[in-house]
Amino acid sequence: MTAGKAAPRKSMGRPQVGGVGISSAQRVIDAVSGVSKRELAEYYLGVAEWLVPQLRGRPLSLVRAPEGLAGETFFQRHCGRLKMPHMRLLDRALDPEHARLMQADSITAVIEAVQMGSIEFHTWKSMARISGTSATSASAWRHSPTIPGRTIARPARTSRRRFGSCRAPSNCRQPPRHDRP
Q1: Tens digit of each residue's pLDDT (9 = 90 or more) over 107-118
Q2: What single DSSP character describes residue 95?
Q3: Count of domains observed in the chain
Q4: Whether 53 contacts 74, CB under 8 Å
Q5: First CA to last CA across the chain, in angstroms?
Q6: Where residue 150 sits, what CATH number does that domain have?
Q7: Do the Cβ atoms of 36 and 26 come closer than 8 Å?
Q8: CA gap 171, 40 in Å, rounded
């Protein structure tokens, strides 16, 4: 089940990334690197072949920063009222006292989440069908030919520092040598 049918989008005049209209596309998410909302969406589109397999089939927690990193950031595990028609809603039995958990099985769902202010994607270690409570990060920090390396290095270091502070293991994976740019 998905969060809703894909209705015609009110995206006239909005830049499209992966078929999703990005509002406030030039809004700077991180003042230090200067990365905009559109650039973050383009980054995730560029790493989709590595990111989506890590997300597919797993409950998902989003880190949202609707006003950028300088504003409030928070985790969100339930779709609630967010309009993300490609985000899959999971069985209510997985968390019966809350709104339904969500899962991103496609890059379109990921980009819809970025459109709604998401900056990071964290999966649970278990699959949705046998849900547990452990979490792991599935952010795919990788050099892209269209995004400068310094833009990717800062969030990758931040993720490593955050995971290191909670004594979580850091596991960096790279694509096979022949797939790297």
Answers
A1: 999 999 999 999
A2: S
A3: 1
A4: no
A5: 36
A6: 3.90.920.10
A7: yes
A8: 22
Give pLDDT tens digits for 44-69: 999 999 999 989 988 899 999 999 99
Taking CB atoms within 8 Å and a gap of at least 24, the contacts of 141-150 are: 142/47, 142/50, 142/174, 142/175, 143/181, 144/43, 144/46, 144/47, 144/181, 145/181, 146/42, 146/46, 147/39, 147/42, 147/43, 147/46, 150/33
Residue 37 sits at φ, ψ, to 5 deg, of -60, -40
For residue 155, the enclosing domain spans 16-165
Query: What digits encode the pLDDT tens for the residues 158-173?
Result: 666 655 554 444 454 4
Q: Which amino acid makes up residue 138? A: A
Q: What is the pLDDT of residue 149?
A: 58
The helix/strand/coil state of 40 is helix
In a domain, 1, yes or no: no
- Distance from C-alpha of 168 to C-alpha of 181, rounded to nearest angstrom: 29
Residue 40 identity (one-letter amino acid): L
Closest CA to 78 of 59, 93, 65, 50: 59
